[in-house]
Structures are given as structure tokens and as C-alpha cells.
Design goal:
The chain has 108 residues and is mostly helical. It folds into two domains: 59 residues; 38 residues, no CATH class. 56% of the residues lie in helices and 0% in strands. It is built from six helices and no strands. The model has no long low-confidence stretch (mean pLDDT 83).
Length: 108
């Protein structure tokens, strides 16, 4: 946490860090996630000196968004994630499909 942050942000950081560690996230990654989340919230509420455009112009805060943009990076979800989704939807032939075929079968 940056020096001079409020007690509220300190509590928020600890809560997020502990939640991530309980989910099995490594300690370093949990700290990173907590710091990024808290810093973004600080930027949105005008508590930080500098802020990125996405931090201040997002329509939803990170907790409200709740992973809405997860897996939309360059490569998207992994084959295992796509397979799990196909399994939930009971798609036939999923075990022999590659990542692109799974994506197509799921309509992505």
C-alpha cells in the first residue's frame, strides 16, 4: 500500500489479499491483485495524484464488475476452461476438440 493511504483502504487491501489467499492464490499474486484493486478504487474516488484513463472512466468499479472482462486478453480462455464450459453444456465430441473447435462449438 502506498504511504499515506487511509485506514479504510488498508482494511480493503487486507480483506482482498486474504480472500485471494483463501482461494489458493499465491501470496505474491494475492498482494498484487489487492494493491491493483485498491489503487484503482483510490484513483476513481480522487484519492491518488495520478490515475489512468481506464481507472477514472470505467462505468463500474472493480468489485461491481466482478470479473466481467476476465479471459478477454490476447489468447482468451485456456483450452481447459473451454472444455469445462463445453462439459457443462454437454457438447458431444468435446474430448477430441482442440481450443479453436471448442471455442466454435461454444459459439465464441
Amino acid at each position: 500500500m502506498p504511504a499515506g493511504s487511509s485506514p479504510k483502504r488498508e482494511r480493503q487491501y487486507e480483506h482482498i489479499r486474504q480472500s485471494q489467499e483463501e482461494r489458493g492464490t499465491s501470496e505474491g499474486r494475492a498482494k498484487e491483485i489487492a494493491a491493483r484493486t485498491v489503487n484503482k478504487e483510490r484513483a476513481r474516488s480522487g484519492e491518488s495524484r495520478t490515475a489512468s484513463r481506464t481507472s477514472t472512466q470505467d462505468r463500474k468499479s472493480a468489485p461491481q464488475r466482478g470479473g466481467e472482462r476476465s479471459h478477454r486478453g490476447a489468447k482468451g480462455p485456456t483450452r481447459d476452461q473451454l472444455y469445462a464450459e463445453a462439459r457443462k453444456k454437454n457438447i458431444d465430441g468435446r474430448s477430441s476438440m482442440n481450443k479453436d473447435e471448442l471455442r466454435q462449438a461454444l459459439g465464441r
